[in-house]
Request: fold
Amino acid sequence: MKFKSGLLISLMALVTILAGCEPLLVLDPKGPQAERQASDIMLSIGIMAVIVIVVLVILAVILFKYRASKQPDDYEPPHIEGNIWVEVICIGIPVLIVAYLSFVSVQSNYIVESAPTGYENEEPLVIYASSSDWKWHFSYPEQGIETVNYLYIPTDRPLEFKLYSHGPITSFWIPQLGGQKYAMADMVTTLHLGADVPGEYMGRNANFSGKGFAENIFNVTAMSQKEFDEWVEEVHERAEPLTEDVFNKLLEPGHLGQMTFTGTHLEFSPAPEHNHGSDTDDLESNHDDHTSHDTQTDSTNVETDHSGH
Reply:
């Protein structure tokens, strides 16, 4: 009786605690990239749940059917040959599951690495997001402003983040808008996101980077394009300019609150030139220019040799 009462109380306490829990952020998407990732997570959970249930049912059947029983001392179990269909099922189904999940993963990876769908006719907002110990710097080159530890973004518009670090490797992550991507000191990585719903979201560094890692977070506010433009105007009216001396102090290890400046550090401390994930056309253009230059050089050399001869 005491055992049943204790079990009932424990179950009631567990239900009460779970009822007060907020939903997982990755399963509460507010943008097209996050929606795709959330659907993939639920698909994986569903497939794994089916596998677990089937395995548990088979285990129960085997334990019951082949359980130990009293037999005569001279009992010999029957000789059972292998069954080709059982082997095909046991091998074929896992292969099909892995193949299907691989196809979905590759397809989803291509989708989330590209610009958000539905915003093809919209000009992307380019934001340089750089990290330092232990803070985030957001540079808006088009708007000519910079913020520290908070991010304002417009809804219904593609966002193109240029990520890099002023120190150790970090990982830029806004769970409700999309997946994480590394920010490194010697190169720029590009992350495409979008926000469909206005609201307040949490962003953070998802890669351990020292003792201040736990508080290396930032706030994200999604708003309409009109409200975003009004915020930009207000910043230019009230904020102080960002100087090189001020920026160097910001890079010193430590935690800071939210700060706002006019101008960006890109003017005196540009981002690394190596851009990982840049457009293929730019690479091809550079290659064509290099080839053209080499061809012209070779032609000049041939003419010089011929003239000399």
Q: What stands out?
A: The radius of gyration is 29 Å. The chain is about 45% helix and 20% strand. Confidence is low (pLDDT under 50) at residues 279-309.
